[in-house]
Amino acid sequence: MPMTYSVLYDVTLLTEDDLYLFNEGNHFHLYKKLGAHVVTRGGTKGTYFAVWAPDAEIVYVMGDFNGWNKTSHALRSRAVSGIWEGFIPGVEKGAKYKFHVCSRYQGYTADKTDPFALHGETPPLTASIVWDLDYLWGTRPG
What we know:
Layout (H helix, E strand, L loop, with lengths): L15 H9 L10 E7 L2 E9 L3 E8 L12 E3 L4 E7 L6 E8 L5 E4 L15 E2 L13
């Protein structure tokens, strides 16, 4: 049985400058802001999710942490940027996930792999995997 996690909306990686550069089309480090990022806020470790879905009516995160429930973890729209975001405490590196996007148009819905995912399942499986950017280039294991 999956654990119960709730979405918090007071955690963001996006500053006003980020939104300005994004809307202008000149943000060159979006991989640090969009996708899934393991963070600790207020002593609570979890994952911050953000995706650009400008024509969505609502966006959800589903994954192995919620039994792949398509509608249990809604993200919140950030201003007029088309970016949807939310922080889910307890979701850690290695969790599999997708976004469930509900369009504003004709009731269309789709389960989408994260375009900014840092890791993903081996095909033919298609889920994104929460990962991190902590990799030391030029080092050899062991």
